[in-house]
Amino acid sequence: MNDSTHPLLHGLNAQQRAAVTTPAGPVLVLAGPGSGKTRVLTHRIAWLLTELRIPAWQVLAVTFTNRAAREMRHRLTDMLGDTSAREMTLGTFHAACVRILRREAEAANLAPNYAIFDSDDQLAVMKQVVKDMNLDDKRYKPRALLNAVSSAKNELIAPDAYPIHTYYDEIIARAYGHYQQLLRNSDGLDFDDLLMKTANLFRDNPLVREKYQRRYRNILVDEFQDTNMAQYVILKALGHEHQHLYVVADEDQSIYSWRGADYRNIRRLREDFPKLTQYLLEENYRSTQVILDAAQAIIAGNRDRTPKHLYTHQPGGDLLTLHEAYDEQEEAEYVAREIRALLRSGREPGAIAVMYRTNAQSRALEEALMKAGIPYRLIGGTRFYTRREVKDILAYLRLVNNPDDDVSFTRVINVPRRGIGAKTLEAVAAQARVQQGSLAKGMMALLHAGTLSTRAHNALLGFASMLKQWRTARENVTVAALIDHVVTDSGYEGYLRDGSDDGESRWENVMALRGAVSDVPNISLTDFLTEVALVADVDELAEEIDAVTLLTLHSAKGLEYPVVFLTGLEEGMLPHSRSMETLDDIAEERRLLYVGMTRAEERLVLSYAFRRGWGYYGSSEPTEPSRFLADLPDEVLGQRQGRRAPQSTPRASWSVGAWGQSSERTAPRPQPEPEYRTGQRVRHTHYGEGMIIESQMEGRDEMVTVMFSSGVGVKRLLAGMAPLEALSEH
DNA sequence: ATGATTTTACTTTTT
DNA sequence: GTAAAATCAT
User: CA A225 – C1' B1 distance (Å)?
Assistant: First the structure.
């Protein structure tokens, strides 16, 4: 067969073609931004189905976000038709795991109707843990404990295997154990459990593992650099036997280490699959040469990466614009002004995206766009499903699906008020503890025993019988009808619609939720709740509209726009102040900027503000331009607008310099003395005690290399930024 | 048990 | 400045 005439390969370059038609076996495609990796992935799937005659149901394709999954399914439907696209398993890791765990609930020792706990629910449970264990919530912050537990789960560490080096570790281990116990009482799984339980299921149950190995004889993974240990173990369990594992990765776009992602999985893959074939996609089809040069200059500032030679056949292009605004309002007004000019010159709103580091930054932009009458759509941000009234209704529904869900039980037991107060609830909780069961079980036992006061008894009985009615109704009616029952019987409608405007708008949200259910006719309650838990953004469900897109740099990954605005490029914003403690943190922030820049096809506008509101109450502080801007070569910069060119202020203080040329460009300044010396003992608030291995001045910053005693290992820290203190000598 | 008042913490990124 | 949490009064 002549490859070039095959319709599937039409329009692909030699590298892409080789990657699409590679024979069966383990494959790693290293793909730069804009090199057509989604294209390669979809064409590979089509190739498997049409050329190698693989049945669609044997294909498992995993993406990182629901949006990417939807996009890929869309493309495959166009290429292969509805049936094939529907038959294959295509979704996020979490979605795939949910399906497997529901089907294999018995083998996994789970209730098939288990609840999925989102981050709010997780926090509620951890607060309960802190309470139960009589911990001081100032010293043991539920959030921090949750983070530790989440990392442990992502590393597949069980509570009794949690490594203990300090007393704090000891507390974490116990809190972890108790947390899991509470989840179990509720028949609930959190996001991390979905991965961990699946990995453990495959580890402990060879029959189930083999079943899925046979089922998913072809596994494809997008954004492999952002997989964590649990996800890697799942992939290995399924793919190692048949070796048909096809992954696409770009280490320069690894931006989820805070979620346990470990780009070293690429190295593990090479070790675990010695027969791995590698392909490199280096031709960029997205951006102009200017944009590409700028992005490469930024990413070149990171060490420990494989250098790539991205190239494009679109030479030249518009130079970048770098704009300094006075504050975030004026920055937003500048963006709005520029967008208006673009729209006047014939750009579609949908061709433009505005990106930022944190969701909070969208506010000023929204206001400016609204004032300018520019249509926009916001990705992420205030999420529909996290609104109070929506969560209340969902809690009722979750309780109908799984009465043992204690988080939902606690949420709605007295909303609207039905005379069940703290005291009654404490009695229920005490009974639940006695019988080691859920609150619902405790409630039923108390009602049976009849030991409560008449008032409390009747109030509880009313609630219990309502629940029972809905559970019966659920068998015969649609989810939408069930919502109608719930809001009427519980009095929730009357409670919300108290005549206030706020009440009416909240009621509209409840109706919007009902509308979202009706959009999918015949969806089961369990499926609906699963979807809501995993697709946390209602925008994901809304259809595409022609509007300017507002989104964080994280959610921008995988997308592309003719015109991109990157805003808030200041120290503390990007790199974010909470992410500049270690060199690894800063390297990841740099990758984030790289991801943002490489989204742009034709025009890239960078902006920062001279001062920015920080406090929670209007206070505004002067800022420094992002250190990364210093790495932009003059050749890619066109206008420098605004009151201050970034180079005009000396910025040696934040050039991490040894491997960027930036330090050469900055004025010399007196060298301060290092604060730490080799051999000195130190304490870090997160990492515990350690010893300085090396300390050196880099510009005005002191860079220390510290070996920590607990499982943390060696970290490179900026002495000025890290919460580090010297320990006195003995 | 509930409503009113005061206090406190909160914002990094997402499945 | 907001939302949740703690405290107080009814």
Answer: 54
- Count of positions (residues) in chain A: 730
Phi, psi values for residue A276, rounded to 5°:
-55, 130
Q: How many CB atoms lie within 10 A of CB A635?
A: 10
CATH code of the domain occupying A7-105+195-283: 3.40.50.300
DSSP SS3 for A603: strand
Q: How far is the CA of A615 from the C1' of C1 (A)?
A: 10
Give the per-residue pLDDT at A719.
76
Mean pLDDT of chain A: 87
Catalytic residue, chosen from A118, A121, A190, A223, is: A223
Indicate the range of A206-220, A370-384, A438-452 predicted with least confidence. Answer: A370-384
**Which nucleotide is the nearest neighbour of A615, by CA and C1'?**
C1
Superfamily of domain A292-383+538-658: P-loop containing nucleotide triphosphate hydrolases (3.40.50.300)
Nearest nucleotide, C1' to the C-alpha of A386? C3
CA A576 to C1' B11, whole Å: 11
Q: Is A222 a catalytic residue?
A: yes
Determine the distance between A588 (CA) and C5 (C1') in angstroms: 36
Based on the residue annotation, tell me whether A598 is a catalytic residue of this protein.
no
Which pLDDT does position A8 carry in this prediction? 84
Q: Give pLDDT tens digits for A488-533.
A: 999 899 888 877 777 888 888 889 889 888 888 889 999 999 988 8
| Residues A656-659: contacts with CB under 8 Å, at least 24 apart | A656/A583, A656/A586, A656/A627, A656/A698, A656/A699, A656/A701, A656/A703, A657/A698, A657/A699, A658/A698, A659/A301, A659/A303
End-to-end CA distance of chain A: 78
A223 is catalytic: yes
Domain A116-186 matches domain A386-529 at the CATH topology level: no
A321 Cβ contacts chain B strand, under 7 Å: no
Q: Where are the domains of chain A?
A: 7-105+195-283, 116-186, 292-383+538-658, 386-529, 681-726
Q: Which CATH superfamily is domain A386-529 in?
A: PCRA; domain 4 (1.10.486.10)
pLDDT of residue A614: 65
Protein-contacted bases of chain B (C-beta within 7 A): 1-3, 9-15
Catalytic residue among A180, A227, A253, A552: A253
A311 CB less than 7 Å from any atom of strand B = no
